[in-house]
Specification:
The chain has about 325 residues and is α+β, with helices and mostly antiparallel strands. An eight-stranded antiparallel β-sheet has the order 4-3-2-1-8-7-6-5. It is globular. The N terminus is likely disordered.
């Protein structure tokens, strides 16, 4: 462990001094984005699911691995990490691969807005039937720790997609139940020296991006209030400050017996279609996330397909991290 911390420290130090690399946006991704821009939201979701994810479902699941030392050197380059904030394409750049959250599984989702959406606008108000999500682990699970997370892609008619990243913490949890803990766009600060060093890399990229709040533990959710699924901009948007995705009791029960020896992707594949996975709560700034009364419920997240693992999801699918400038 001390050796790993020393390596990360050296990587961070090099990252501070390193110049920018030369990763270029994917030409194929640009062409794909241009060709699909005029489609409706659900036509885009259909295209990604039917033409890219389903044909690349794994026959045999690849072994789960953790980021290596060379991956840490890539993360140390600001121009590599900053693309997580600037790449609004649905696909990764050529030469850019997932170094964390490398392994996951995808599903189609429906976000059903509650009738008491507290006046929030955009997708919070309308909901969406055209969502693709990826459930992943930040790194290879160990006997004592897993770090689950969820990324959601809300497709918008005639517009680039809007994305959302949520998790419980970078420290993870002792349980191997993917649905043990709630997820949020705001998470606690890292609890270890090594993770704090990694956080420094992402903060450096956020500063270079020009983020109003460069804290990597706080991703914004205002963008979901600013646009409708049909592409119409909201004139007077109203957004929550924080979202909490609380797994349902049924979701938690599905994986209550999960262990390090059971691949989380196989466990997720058993999730029933059309069964609510998360109840979604929203809080304004200053409101506590410890108490989740019914009047803070803004919707439900429901899978509308089987959950599948695919090479497209692991190697090409991109979810932009959102920070307000």
């Amino acid at each position: 462990m001390r050796i790993l911390i020393f390596i990360i420290y050296i990587v961070v130090s090099i990252g501070v001094l390193a110049g920018c690399c030369s990763i270029q946006p994917s030409t194929s991704a640009k062409i794909t984005a241009t060709s699909t821009l005029s489609l409706t939201a659900c036509q885009k979701a259909d295209s990604m699911w039917n033409d890219k994810i389903i044909p690349t479902i794994y026959g045999d699941l690849p072994a789960l691995t953790a980021p290596g030392v060379l991956d840490l050197f890539s993360l140390a380059k600001t121009c590599f990490t900053i693309r997580s904030l600037t790449n609004d394409s649905d696909e990764l750049d050529v030469g850019h691969r997932k170094l964390v959250h490398a392994w996951g599984a995808e599903a189609r989702f429906r976000f059903v807005s509650s009738k008491s959406a507290r006046g929030y606008t955009g997708i919070y108000e309308s909901g969406s039937d055209c969502v693709i999500g990826r459930l992943s682990m930040a790194t290879k699970p160990t006997k004592t720790t897993t770090v689950p997370a969820l990324a959601l892609k809300f497709f918008i008619s005639g517009h680039t997609s809007e994305n959302l990243h949520i998790m419980n913490s970078t420290s993870g949890q002792e349980s191997h139940n993917f649905f043990e803990m709630p997820f949020s766009n705001i998470i606690p600060p890292p609890d270890s020296f090594a993770k704090r060093l990694m956080l420094k890399l992402f903060r450096k990229a956020a500063v270079a991006y020009g983020a109003k709040d460069p804290d990597p533990t706080h991703l914004t959710v205002e963008h979901l209030a600013k646009i409708q699924v049909d592409g119409t901009a909201v004139v007077t948007p109203k957004s929550p400050y924080r979202l909490v995705f609380k797994p349902t009791m049924a979701a938690g029960a599905l994986m209550k017996d999960a262990t390090v020896d059971t691949d989380f992707r196989q466990n997720l594949a058993r999730y029933p279609i059309d069964q609510v996975m998360y109840d979604v709560y929203a809080m304004d700034e200053g409101e506590s996330a410890d108490d989740l009364p019914v009047n803070k419920l803004v919707g439900h997240l429901i899978p509308t397909s089987n959950i599948v693992a695919s090479s497209y999801g692991d190697e090409k699918l991109n979810f932009r991290h959102n920070m307000e400038k």
